[in-house]
């Protein structure tokens, strides 16, 4: 059996467009399983269609997929999903009131919180160095802002990768491009560039995203296995 014929298994999370509830499952065929859910052939989601995939994880065997499904249903897994999906849901606009198994999803991105915590840590380090060297002018407002802007642009670029992967999982014909502007109260821009199928080699797909926040830019290039959707490489490149 060649690598491209290897069967992959997936733990996934669906969201009902009807009532906003989330449902967790595992399967070896993500697209087929989504069709079954929307055709009301699965008892746990019967009458809840239309549904869409908002999160999935690829596993090498069935056992690992069911272990991940069980984890995603646990209290710790729910907290992990809530934090993971906050930013993604705010970017795509696919936000509903969640009254099911998981805590409520909001349109508030945690990207700003992560950036703020990063700035605080950087500030403490720089302040310690400045005091030790008796160089009070070492710490400047512009340096702190540059670090924050870069962190936010990185968060936007990563969220665009998540968006592109889900688009591709739902529709193998997805080719981009797509632009997302003005996320929440932010002024950042996130772009999914045209998807490159059978690149760099046959059976692989290259996804490129670019994000701008003020003057900070982040460019990401991700290569995935076209069949299994496994990420083969993840690189930040100088600029497209």
Automatic annotation (TrEMBL):
Residue ranges crossing the lipid bilayer per the database entry: 112-133
InterPro entries: GIY-YIG_endonuc, GIY-YIG_endonuc_sf, UPF0213_domain
Domain GIY-YIG, residue spans: 7-82
Keywords: Membrane, Transmembrane, Transmembrane helix
Gene3D superfamilies the UniProt entry points to: GIY-YIG endonuclease (3.40.1440.10)
UniProt xrefs under PROSITE patterns: GIY_YIG
Coiled coil: none
SUPFAM superfamilies: GIY-YIG endonuclease (SSF82771)
A UniProt-annotated Pfam family: GIY-YIG
This protein's record includes keyword Transcription regulation: no
The UniProt record lists the keyword Transmembrane: yes
Record family assignment: Belongs to the UPF0213 family.
Protein name: GIY-YIG domain-containing protein
The species this protein was found in: Candidatus Terrybacteria bacterium RIFCSPHIGHO2_01_FULL_43_35
């Amino acid at each position: 059996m060649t690598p491209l014929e290897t069967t992959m298994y997936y733990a996934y999370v669906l969201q009902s467009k009807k009532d906003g509830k989330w449902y967790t499952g595992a399967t070896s065929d993500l697209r087929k399983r989504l069709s079954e859910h929307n055709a009301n052939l699965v008892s746990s989601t019967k009458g809840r269609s239309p549904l869409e995939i908002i999160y999935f994880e690829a596993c090498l065997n069935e056992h690992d997929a069911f272990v991940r499904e069980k984890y995603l249903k646990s209290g710790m897994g729910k907290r992990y999903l809530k934090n993971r999906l906050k930013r993604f849901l705010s970017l795509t606009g696919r936000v509903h009131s969640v009254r099911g198994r998981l805590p409520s999803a909001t349109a508030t991105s945690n990207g700003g919180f992560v950036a703020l915590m990063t700035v605080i840590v950087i500030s403490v380090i720089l302040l310690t160095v400045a005091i030790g060297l008796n160089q009070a002018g070492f710490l400047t407002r512009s340096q702190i802002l540059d670090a924050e802007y870069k962190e936010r642009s990185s968060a936007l670029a990563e969220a665009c990768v998540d968006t592109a992967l889900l688009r591709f999982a739902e529709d193998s014909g997805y080719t981009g491009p797509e632009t997302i502007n003005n996320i929440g109260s932010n002024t950042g821009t996130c772009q999914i560039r045209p998807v490159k199928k059978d690149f760099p080699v046959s059976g692989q797909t290259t996804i490129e995203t670019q994000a701008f926040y003020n003057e900070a830019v982040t460019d990401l290039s991700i290569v995935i296995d076209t069949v299994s959707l496994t990420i083969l490489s993840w690189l930040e490149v100088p600029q497209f």
